[in-house]
Every structure is written in structure tokens, then in C-alpha cells.
């Protein structure tokens, strides 16, 4: 159910405070939805904050046909400097919050402030409100609403299972990847948001020794970012390379990297090329390779329609 003007009277004010090198910059009366007044998945681009778990969860919702409306129903623009939002704690209790419009910032090495989030304002505000929850736990039932001293640093680590529960108010489930193709196919057909996490960087390095790319404190192995969360866009069969008797369509998963870059482009089921291109965060990966690089999937039973 969408937030209403009447809900504003019930909302509790939160103010995200500074800690360490992270803080926020007020955005005045900025536009929440710069892309035609609606939520679009390309509004979400991860900066330096280690919040892939949270942004991938937002992406997994935004990539469904009814996801944009669902997210906009969680947030209400007051038309001035304030935004209202509705999220749920681990006990499935809804919390109405109010905060000033603001962007996340990080201190640079020289001590100067620099903007590190390229996302739209609505994305930044979901992070501001999410900071009022202690969510750095595998157990989504342990999400605790703490409005007194919310801090952006809380978003620097966490798990998609918790983010999905926080955003939907429903139980989220984490499952090991191995042997889960049919289950993921069923979740996709049902319209459920899904987020997958790649194996830890040391594990991938052990499997594929050699140099990788360093960014956001991650290492890129064969085009896949280690210790990273990706949103699931589609699940099904996909044709890699030219059609032929020896190269039929195969089971595969389409993923989206919240960085909005670093795609893994497959030309056939056995060869690939790592590509680093801003604005191209999506790619298909064969299930046989998917099981090698990824170790778990989180989903929530919130039916949001087909993929956009």
C-alpha cells in the first residue's frame, strides 16, 4: 500500500550523523526521480560505499515490471526538503520515517569532501532511511530499527536477505546456488526479486590464480567481481554465439552489476571476455559457469511481475 499524506503525521524524524569519513550533503528541494518522475533501474549506480548488498536488492525490485511502483509506494516526496519512507524491521513492524533530502559523501585523501554516489536522489534516500536499521546480519529477523543515531557507515556491509526483508516486510530466504537452477527459474517466473553473491575473493583467486583488477577493494576474476552482490534480471535459456548444432541455447542467468560496469561478455559457452564499460552492467552467464563463480541466492516471495 502506498504512503499517504495522512501517514506523514505518524512519521518519526531521523537525522543521519557523521562517523569517520562518511557523511551526507543536504539536497535542498532536489527531484527524487530525475528519470521522467519515475523509478528506473539505471538510477542505481554504486559509488565507494560498500553497499552492493542493498543496491542490488533495490535493483532486483526495480528490474521487475511492477517494481518501480512498489518502490515509489515506499517513499513520499513532501514537495519541499523532506521525504517520508516506510520500511520494516526484523519483527515485520512497519516504521514511518521522515528525513531531509541528502546525498552520501566521503572524505577524500586530501581531507576534502567528494560526492561518491552517482545514483538518483531516491536511491540515496533509501540508503539514508536504511541507515536507521541495524542490518549487518545474515539473520533478517535481527533487523532492529534504531532511529536515535542512524549512521551511513551501517550501509557499508550487509546481506541482501536483510535488505529484501527490510524493503518488503516479508521473510527472505538465502539458498546455496548449487543445483538451484529450477528453483531460480520458478522464482523468476513468479516475479520474485533475487540477488546473488559471488564467492569470496580469496576463493576465486585460488580457483583462477593470476592478476585481477582492483576497484572498491574487490578483485575482478575472469570479469566477475569477488565478494560482490548482483541483481538477478532473468533466468532461462540463452544463446551464446552463433546458432548451430554444436552450440545450442543453454540454461543461463542474466545479472546486473550495481556498479553499472564490469560485464562478463560470453561469446560461446566456453569462452568469454571481461569488459569494463560504464553503463553496461548487465550480462548473461551460462549456468555451468554461474555455479562456479556464485555461492548463494537471496529471494523474497513478493510477486512483482516479469522482467522489464
Any overview of this molecule?
The chain is an alpha+beta fold and 308 residues long. The chain folds into two domains: 10-170, no CATH class; 174-300, Cathepsin B, Chain A (Alpha-Beta Complex). Helix content is 20%, strand content 30%. The protein is built from seven helices and 20 strands. The strands form six sheets. Strands 10-20-11-15-16-19 form a six-stranded antiparallel beta sheet. A hairpin with a 2-residue loop joins β12 and β13. The longest helix is centred in the N-terminal third of the chain and has 11 residues, at 52-62. The protein starts with 11 loop residues before the first strand and ends in an 8-residue tail after the last strand. The model has no long low-confidence stretch (mean pLDDT 87).
Distance between the termini: 22 Å
- Helix/strand-derived category reads alpha+beta
- Structural Rg: 19 Å
For the largest beta sheet, what order do the strands appear in spatially?
10-20-11-15-16-19
Largest sheet: 6 strands, antiparallel
In total, the number of strands is: 20
Q: Give the domain tally.
A: 2
Mean pLDDT: 87
- Overall form: globular
User: Residue ranges: pLDDT <50 for 5 or more in a row?
Assistant: none
- Estimate percent helicity: 10-25%
Amino acid at each position: 500500500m502506498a504512503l499517504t499524506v495522512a501517514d506523514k503525521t505518524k512519521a518519526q524524524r531521523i537525522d543521519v550523523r557523521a562517523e569517520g569519513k562518511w557523511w551526507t550533503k543536504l539536497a535542498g528541494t532536489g527531484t527524487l526521480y530525475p528519470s521522467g518522475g519515475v523509478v528506473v533501474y539505471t538510477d542505481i549506480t554504486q559509488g565507494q560505499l560498500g553497499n552492493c548488498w542493498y543496491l542490488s536488492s533495490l535493483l532486483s525490485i526495480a528490474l521487475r515490471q511492477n517494481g518501480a511502483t512498489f518502490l515509489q509506494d515506499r517513499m513520499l516526496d513532501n514537495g519541499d526538503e523532506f521525504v517520508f519512507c516506510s520500511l520494516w524491521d526484523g519483527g515485520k513492524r512497519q516504521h514511518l520515517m521522515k528525513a531531509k533530502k541528502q546525498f552520501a559523501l566521503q572524505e577524500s585523501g586530501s581531507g576534502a569532501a567528494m560526492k561518491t554516489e552517482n545514483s538518483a536522489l531516491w536511491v540515496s534516500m533509501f540508503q539514508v532511511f536504511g541507515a536507521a536499521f541495524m542490518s549487518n546480519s545474515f539473520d533478517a529477523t535481527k533487523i532492529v530499527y534504531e532511529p536515535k543515531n542512524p549512521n551511513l557507515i551501517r550501509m557499508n556491509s550487509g546481506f541482501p536477505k536483510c535488505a529484501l526483508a527490510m524493503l518488503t516486510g516479508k521473510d527472505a530466504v538465502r539458498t546455496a546456488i548449487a543445483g538451484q537452477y529450477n528453483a531460480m527459474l520458478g522464482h523468476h517466473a513468479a516475479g520474485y526479486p533475487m540477488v546473488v553473491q559471488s564467492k569470496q575473493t580469496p576463493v576465486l583467486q585460488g580457483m583462477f590464480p593470476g592478476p585481477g583488477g582492483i576497484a572498491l577493494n574487490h578483485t575482478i576474476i575472469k570479469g566477475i567481481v569477488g565478494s560482490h552482490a548482483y541483481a538477478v534480471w532473468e533466468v532461462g535459456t540463452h544463446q551464446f554465439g552463433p546458432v548451430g548444432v554444436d552450440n545450442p541455447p543453454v540454461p543461463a542467468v542474466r545479472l546486473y552489476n550495481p556498479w553499472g560496469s564490469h560485464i562478463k561478455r560470453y561469446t560461446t559457452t566456453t569462452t568469454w571476455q571481461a569488459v569494463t564499460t560504464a553503463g553496461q552492467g548487465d550480462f548473461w552467464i551460462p549456468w555451468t559457469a554461474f555455479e562456479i563463480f556464485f555461492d548463494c541466492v537471496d529471494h523474497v516471495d513478493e510477486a512483482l511481475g516479469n522482467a522489464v
